[in-house]
Amino acid sequence: MWDKNKKKLQSRFSKIFQESAGRSLRFLFIFLFWIVVWQIAYLIIDRDIVFSSPAQVAGRLIELISIDEFWASTVGSLARIGLGFLAGLAAGVLLAILSVANRWFAALFKPLLSMIRATPVSSFIILALIWMSSVRVVIFIVFLMVMPIIWANLVEGIRKTDRQLLEMARLFKMNRWRRIRLIYLPSISPFLISAVSTSLGLGWKAGIAAEVLSTPDLSLGKSLYESKIYLETQDLFAYTAVIIILSMVLEKLIVKSLYMLQNLISHQGRLYRHNSRHLLSRLSLRKRL
What we know:
This protein has 289 residues and is an all-alpha fold. It has 2 domains: 1-46; 55-288, MetI-like (MetI-like fold). It is 89% helix and 0% strand. Helix 3 packs parallel to helix 6 (134-159) and helix 5 packs across helix 6 (134-159). The two termini are 49 Å apart.
């Protein structure tokens, strides 16, 4: 028995290792392919002031890592964009709940949602520069980009919640917190993850664009702008690479954390749905008898 289990475990670990190795090799091949394409483009253009090579950018990135101001700019950008994202997330959740609870509220605020989606980001940034300080501009722009996406997705998720389960909860006088935890959260979690994934990338890009135009102190956007002004192409490429890497890492970490949370919530929701449906079938059977 022990030998059988041992063999099963070994085969499982071997399969996981092979899949992981396959993914790593595929990623390495894709990465090297685009590095080669980049190097060929550099050799064709052959003008350092216009285009930098991978080696030059990598060297500049290593130099930047040892500079305190670079880390301060990175932390500053993360803090501003993160604050705007959290504010947009909180406002989107609140507006979604109010929109579902009250039709008049939804009707009144729907044109605002459409207007925010239709207006170019640059117009909001220019207007915000008139109204507020450069630091607040970044937070405000990220808030505006995130809030409508969260709002629209959560409204859809709440409206698609299983009505039979809600009826069962009312029948057994389930308190509001248990109703939210066992019914609403499992229902809206896929919509929330989709909204967070979309709004995170959009908010990050909009936040950096706002920093480029508003140039707040200690920000990646300001460093990017100064690189362009002084024709420091290596710095421009290096800061762009940092912005891309940070965006990918943040999205991966946050979305992965949300998926883990969703699995926990969904497990509790599945148990409740199974028990509720079993009970409903028993009740309907009793009525027939």
